[in-house]
Amino acid sequence: MLRRFVSHSFQATRITPEKLSLRFCLSIRVPTIAESISSGKVVGWTKKVGDTVSEDEVICQIESDKLNVDVRAPAPGVITKINFEEGSVVEVGTELSTMKEGEAASAAEVPAEPKPEAQAQSAVAAPKAAPVQAVSAPPAAAAPTALRGADPRVRSVRISSMRQRIADRLKASQNTCAMLTTFNEIDMTPLIELRNRYKDEFFKKNNVKLGFMSPFVKACAIALQDIPIVNASFGTDCIEYHDFVDISVAVSTPKGLVVPVLRDVQNSSFAQIEKQIADFGERARSNKLTLAEMTGGTFTISNGGVFGSWMGTPIVNPPQSAILGMHATKKKPWVVGNAVVPRDIMAVALTYDHRLIDGSDAVSFLVKVKNLIEDPARIVLDLA
């Protein structure tokens, strides 16, 4: 005999088209940028409400004080809502937008793009987005424009997160370091002759150009190992000595200066250094460097010579204790033996934290670099 069991606790619910569509709505949130970064600025939407997106397609960018992060669509579909305008500061995990999953979403199913007022109300209703939106709203930025509006030659441009970060770090360095700079001049003629003699063969073998950075990186690595206090930094109630050499190289980009790090250069060849610098430069200009690649470093090299600088005093990059500034090579009269001859001369500057590094150590370091560059065979033959 068959018995029928009926669950009296079951309640039927009618599924409306609106509720059904929610099953296919995806929330697009601010991704994790880095362990030390909790927020960023929306700097560009590549899509608007109603636009179709493919899986992993970039829909906007989030700018932090160190790098930009692409926000990508998690699946194919259509953008249904955008919660923040460009320039808004958003926290990691905040919902940026929503999308309807499915490649064939019809235009009728996508709501019209809300007006700015509606977007503001929606942001206020969200518990996390509300305070962020309030902080990021930049009405004050319009004031200078209004005051100077009579002069069309004056433009007010919102400062980027990266530029603000650069400003903060440089001022912090100035406030905390007892910076002092020592100078010297290097006869580049032997290195230039070596480069001219082997550059074609070097390129044919390694598929990268032989520049001046790799010899300077290697010379600095040797000098840093010989004079380890220049490679050290302040810790908490101690001095931290590094038994490795990680050199940060300053790379200029349209958005500002970045300093990716060459790791363990004491073990790297000229070709390895040149390849990594070329790769850093290319990816820095296309905003593809990772935060890990720009973190750390025990010493920095900045080459203002590529822009024609004859002399300058670089600023220490905390928590590092020293930075070497390279400059343009100039033809100058130079005493060799008892004769005055034309030579290719580069001025170099070492800025250091005088709280940690004595002047004698700084000068000894710079003279060591000078001697190695003026006799580059000693680097190649490991006779330093």
TrEMBL record:
Location of the Lipoyl-binding domain: 25-100
Name the record gives this protein: Dihydrolipoamide acetyltransferase component of pyruvate dehydrogenase complex
Enzyme class: transferase
GO CC terms in record: mitochondrion
Gene3D superfamilies reported for this sequence: 2.40.50.100, Chloramphenicol acetyltransferase-like domain (3.30.559.10)
Entry keyword annotation includes Methyltransferase: no
Alphabetically ordered keywords of this record: Acyltransferase, Lipoyl, Mitochondrion, Transferase, Transit peptide, Tricarboxylic acid cycle
Subcellular location: Mitochondrion
Protein family membership: Belongs to the 2-oxoacid dehydrogenase family.
Pathway assigned in UniProt: Amino-acid degradation; L-lysine degradation via saccharopine pathway; glutaryl-CoA from L-lysine: step 6/6
Low complexity bias: start-end ranges: 104-125
Region of interest (Disordered), residue spans: 100-125
